[in-house]
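Observation: inputs received (chain + adenosine-5'-triphosphate).
Thought: call the complex predictor directly.
Action: predict_structure
Action Input:
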Amino acid sequence: MTRRLLIVEDDPGLQSQMRWCFSDDLEVTVASDRESALTALRRAEPDVVTLDLGLPPDPGGATEGFSLLEEILRLSPGTKVIVVTGREDKENAVKAIGMGACDFYQKPLDADILSFVVNRAFRLAELERENEYLAIQRSGTNVKGIVAASPQMLGICRTLEKVAPTDVTTLITGETGTGKELLARAIHDLSHRADKPFAAINCAAIPENLLESELFGFEKGSFTGATHTKKGKIESANGGTLFLDEIGDMPMALQAKLLRFLQERMVDRVGSVQPIPVDVRVVCATHRDVRALIEAGDFREDLYYRISEITLDVPPVRERDGDALVIAQSLLKSLGKQMDRPNLAFSEEAANAINGYGWPGNVREMINKVKRATIMADGKRVTAEDLELVNGQTSDQIQLNLRQVRETAERQAIVQALRACNFNIAQTSRLLGVTRPTLYNLTDKYRINTSPETSGT
Ligand SMILES: Nc1ncnc2c1ncn2[C@@H]1O[C@H](COP(=O)(O)OP(=O)(O)OP(=O)(O)O)[C@@H](O)[C@H]1O
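Observation:
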């Protein structure tokens, strides 16, 4: 890989000496003031910058140099900056190191020593990059049952690992089949409540008139048919975790009762006047837009704040960079084993189809398709047809319009090019034949993460 150095120096004599010193081994760019230095930083993306603190309009002081140092580190925190100071200028050198410069060098210029300092900075930059790369390689999730490779899901798993040991009430949002229940169980399994019950109830699946007694329980004789006293889900989760799935569908009248429970941690069984204390951690999930429900008057705002002390927004599979194929492969392996068809593998065309398809039903849909393919595959190769995915579409699903087709393809091409270029923006834009600003506009538009770091979304 070419090592790129930016020399920021206003003295033409020193500029040429330094250029002479490095241009055999390095790709060198020279800038003589703040503005041209920032342009060069953006264009050349140097790994190392030597920065003379005394720049115009303050060549005798260091104010301009310090402002530039700050800006370089803000724009490109991984860049190693070596500040170049006057002979007696230790104070500014120390201040620059405190601000984040990686090293300093005092004039007058000695080619050997400066080369040594610059090489050391390059080595440091390379080690940091390697380290980041290795961290990504082994950053598969530790969360049981969750298969993920995308920065988006790995970020969610890391948040989950931090949230799980606490008792905060957590709201998990996301489209159907994205793994909300799986994440709720993982929160329970990673908490100190793991050996206590995990009780789940789907608020949308139970008729409104039964939901209250299901949740809160009832006393014998409290209504026709109540022939015995029964604990509700909340009580049965005592000591453990209560998972309220599809909380967005909870009727208004029950929302008030649930809010009271969350505030007081006491359960009022239907027909009882004796509240019962219950110790549960509550995790909720919904595929609905709760903010819109609040605006429409269908969800209590005060309840929303109670249940969303922490929110995990699970992205759909189509927005996770790299997850579709990784999950499909893991499913093929486990379903193949279960169905006595081990060693099945996707053909290249099937893998492309998996990556190109929009997966509106997310992982649940993927399970169905992979199960079907496991049954249908003729030899060891699973084809796109076995998956009922032809040209990245299911046969019965047509994309909305040409714009949608174009956008899906564009997004996919950008993600692939970024990976192929190791997330180097300059290389990626060259590969795609667009300018860097155009690439940035596109990555913003499609909300594509442009760094290999596994930042969450
Ligand atoms: N990242 C993943 N890795 C492996 N399996 C997954 C993953 N995400 C989801 N699944 C599986 O997909 C299926 C659907 O997941 P889950 O029921 O948790 O989704 P959900 O978001 O709660 O769906 P719904 O909103 O429809 O209730 C489950 O069988 C689950 O085990």
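Thought: report the result.
Final Answer: The pocket of adenosine-5'-triphosphate is lined by residues 146-148, 174, 176-182, 245, 285, 287, 327, 363-364, 367 (CB under 6 Å). The mean pLDDT is 88.
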